[in-house]
Amino acid sequence: VKVFDSVRNIIAVSSGKGGVGKSTVSANLALALQQEGAKVGLLDADVYGPSQPTMLGITDRPYSVDGKTLEPMIAHGLQVASVGVLIDPDQPMIWRGPLAVSALQQLLKQTNWKDLDYLIVDMPPGTGDVPLTVFQSLPVSGIIIVTSPQELVAMIVEKAVNMAKKMNVPILGLVENMSYLECPDCGKKISVFGESQLDEVAKEYGIPVLAQIPIRPAIAKAVDEGTVEYVEADFLDDAVKAVKEA
Ligand code: ADP
Question: Among the four residues 115, 121, 185, 186, which has the most C-beta atoms within 10 Å?
Fold first, then answer.
């Protein structure tokens, strides 16, 4: 489906709650697609905690050439827009659904996206009113769900499946982040949170597991320093494939 003249596919990255690595996965998925030669944009729609500008090391403010549209910020080759730039970081702000949605609509439609193959949307976590309203306002071609093993994965997937059904959008697959720790000496996988229920749940709902990403100090460091780079290259191959086929 062609969304706008300038954006061909919108892919939403969602999660059950905050802190599981949804933003990290969004940025890395965008970079992985770009690495394959696609033109990629990243829309930070996480109205609860917009973190893409920090993760991508963006410090400048967006500007307008014509007074009507906003130029996307460019970071690591990606075209980026974030609800974060509409929020004064020093002002606590209660984001209500309609307010969040109008800000996002503005970002989506008035950003001067330049010929994007994919726009990756870092969604607000959960399936409550705010994420739902945001979802309904975006013409999404597929959803990727990020989970972590310390959650009740079955419940999160069930909710996501219901939401996706309601909106008639396919779930492309599950990405489990912080799946395990790698022993620095022997490379063995250590399941910090016990065995994950991911595979069973995935099978039950007929949704593919696209990636299992370990806890890596390098990932945390890159994210915190705004140098989020292509640290999960080897993990996101299946996710990239799923997005291309969406
Ligand atoms: P969310 O978007 O779900 O709220 P973030 O992507 O912001 O989560 O990640 C939360 C924190 O966890 C960040 O500080 C990030 O650096 C860290 N993090 C995410 N994924 C990993 C990982 N695989 N290994 C180590 N740290 C990670």
Answer: 121
